[in-house]
Specification:
Blueprint (H helix, E strand, L loop, with lengths): L13 E5 L6 H11 L4 E3 L2 E2 L14 E2 L2 H9 L3 E7 L2 E6 H9 L4 E4 L2 H10 L4 E6 L3 H11 L4 H15 L7 E4 L3 H14 L5
Helix pairs in contact: 1-7, 5-6
Length: 196
Amino acid sequence: MTASGNKDGKTGRLIVVSGPSGAGKSTIISRVLARRPDLAYAVSVTTRPRRGQERNGVDYHFVSEETFREKIQTGELAEWARVHGRYYGTCARFIETQRRNGTDVVVDVDTQGAQSLLSKYTDAMSIFVSPPTMEVLQERLVSRRTETPEAIEMRLANAREEMKQMNRYTHVLVNDDVEHAVSEFLAVLNETGIHG
């Protein structure tokens, strides 16, 4: 073992994934992780309430605003932002431990969080997941039946702003077909030297 904690001395890379709410990031990431068990997924911390079958510690770490603010104060978060009226963040210790062990880490963050992480981890790669059109995005958000019409409007307004950040990412995937997008994601990993 080397000082880095893994046999070959390789430091894991960060794979930063962003895209508007409803673009299909979570679905794509879960399918990629099923095919690439060598990757670690950084479960985000959030103050938003659970939706449907979401599980604490699996889909998100659900915490109160008070707990989230404590995590900000103690420097536990590699990045954090207030999005859609709720706080979201990524645990710094998880990223550091996995990378030290030579494991590549996938992080699903908004565009604010992405820029923060990309400035800290200069060897990170970034992927933006885009819906084929804003109309398709709206249909997806409505069909989830988890948001009020006002919340959907807010997410669409945020999506328009997020789409303007697309050119800041090294790779853009248009999710018009989930399986095709998953294949493209896996191809990007291979092209950039993140092999299983």
